[in-house]
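Schema walk-through. Below, the input block comes first and the output block second. Nothing else is stored per chain. Lengths vary across the set, and this one has 294 residues.
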Amino acid sequence: MRFWITKNSQLSVREQLVRQVMLAILSDDLRAGQKLPSTRALARRCQVHSNTVSAAWHQLVDQGWLERRCGSGLYVRSQQAAAADGNQLDGLLSSLLRAAHNHGYAPAEVLERLTLLVEPRTCRRVCLVEADPSMREILLAEVREHVAVPANAVDAANIPLDGDGLVVALPSRAAAVRKHVPKGASFLTLRLRSVRGSLEKEKRPAPNSIVSLVSRSPEFRQWARVMLIAVGLEPACLCDVDTAEDGWQERAGAGALAVADVVAARALPAVCPVRVFRVVADASIAEMKQYCGL
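--- output ---
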């Protein structure tokens, strides 16, 4: 297991170690019977004092997360055994984190959502971190359609420090962005909507019909292509249309159907048959509204 230690955090190094081990056990990243590093080895790896590591290990043993094996070291304790000793809440939390993990949620996300439920706070703005200009424009357009607070793009290294913003990013960027989120700010990974879900109630194009994939974003067009192939459309029938090129509207309208992002769809002629593929899933829109008290 890899430990992430921040020396200037409001949490002590000991508490950072304790929380990371607890979350790793609850999410099955650390399994029952797995051996933990020795005090000296972990202190050297994390460049902290060995007394700090020793205090964290003692706390985890006292709370029933770890167990000492004479002459062998520290091991992850079975949570079933802990529950049998009356620690039933740990068993419930373990089940919760496993279920969340199966749905793609990281332990840190679950912890933040629980904190929000226990100690509600209202975000006054949405801060989108997205380096690609074309994808940034699409995401901002979608967020602004649904969230009645200011929504703007920010650089990962310049996230506002006042703590009243909700920082959001796509799943592929989330791990890198989270490192820059200041203490006290809320962070949400934006879930992606599937093309399958967007088109399942729509009339299917006739065989061999040309379907235009319309967007300035190459990433959007690639997502749309992969998902449309997955629902049975022939790859040869899918035509990329880059809205940065001259004459794109004519090319988009030449097919039987245009699958477009929300920005491109607004610029298509009214006579063009279009299906808007929204990137952000409904679940993430609902989560943003909850963070913003809407």
